[in-house]
Every structure is written in C-alpha cells, then in structure tokens.
Amino acid sequence: MPTDPPLTPLHHDLLRAAARRSDHRLTPPDRVLGGARKRLGEKLIAIGVAERVVGGEPIWDRSPSGGDSGLRLTDVGLSLAGVQADEASEQEVGERGAAPVSAPAEPRSSTKIARVLALLRQPDGADLQALTGATGWLPHTVRAALTGLRGKGHVIEARKRESDGRSVYRILPAAEPTCEPTQPASAASN
To answer: pLDDT tens digits for 83-141?
Structure first.
C-alpha cells in the first residue's frame, strides 16, 4: 500500500494554493529565495506532487539562458491538496494567494489559551483583569494573545463596559468564519 510523501506545512500550503488556480501552477513563496527555492522545487518534483513546465506565469526558476520555468501540480499533488483532478478544473479560482477560510483549531484543554477562549466565549465576555487573573499573564501578554487568536481566525469583539468604562472582549458566534481583524472599541467609537 503506497504511503503519502512527507510534506511540511509549507508544502501543503503551496499545494492548496495551486489547486485553487485554474492552471494549477505553484506560486513560489516570497520568503524562499535563490538556491532554497530551487531545492524546494526539486523536492516537490522528486516526491511526485509537481512537474516542471516551461514558460508562463508564475515563474519558479529563472535561467540565465532565458528558459524560465514554473511548476504545475500533478494528479498526486491535486489529491494531496484535497482536490480530485476532474473537480479541480471546475473550481472557481478566488483571489490569488488567498488562504481558504476555515474554523480555527481548538487548543488542548489544559492550556492557558484554552482558559482565555473559555472566558471569551461567555455571553458577557471578559475584561483584561479577568483574563490576567485566569492566566497569570501581564496585560500586554494577554493583548498579544488576543491578537494571536485573531490571526488564527477567531472573531473577537472589543467594547467598553458602560458601568466602569473597562474594555470587555468576547468571541462572536462563528456564523461566518473570517480572518478579518476586528476594530478595537476605541477605533469603533470614532
């Protein structure tokens, strides 16, 4: 029974992004340059998830002789990206390079961030004092954790409590998951 090739999270991201394109071309990551990009492309070809194609956009390798080439997903690459080859041609291609929106992953229940999430899910939310008390973190660490949660796809509302003017944070129900950051209460009131 064949096993899936060993893929890193970067490989999976590249495969999913290419599967959303109508031409199934891989877009080289901006943070991988030069020889590292060349080795990454060679590895994807070696494990059978991509094939080299000459010309067209996006360009993966630039040759001094002018033979620019790119990479395109193979059927194996499409299946690892979670798309069947016949379905892929029917898919609508969204914004170039946009990551698919999905529900944020849940942390282990014994972690401090799980405590923060539990407090934020309460109907009234939690203020900074409650969050620092539950975690033992300093206020700037709690704010950084809230930013991290927003980055992972949680929609966090910040508003001022009328009784004492403190900021209260809560997670909004996930009717439509989004990765858009929410505005802090001070910016929303302007």
So the answer is: 644 444 444 333 334 444 456 677 788 899 999 999 999 988 999 999 999 999 999 99
Q: CATH number for the domain including 171?
A: 1.10.10.10
Domain boundary, last residue among 55, 73, 88:
88
Domain count, the chain: 2
Please give the helix or strand (H or E) that residue 156 lies within, else none.
Answer: strand 156-160
pTM to 2 decimal places: 0.42
Residue with tokens 């892929």: 88
| DSSP of 71-84 | EEE-HHHHHHTT--
Structure-token pair, residue 183: 């505005």
Contact at 8 Å (CB) between 137 and 148? Answer: no
Residue for token pair 């001094």: 64
Q: Which of 72, 88, 104 is the last residue of a domain?
A: 88
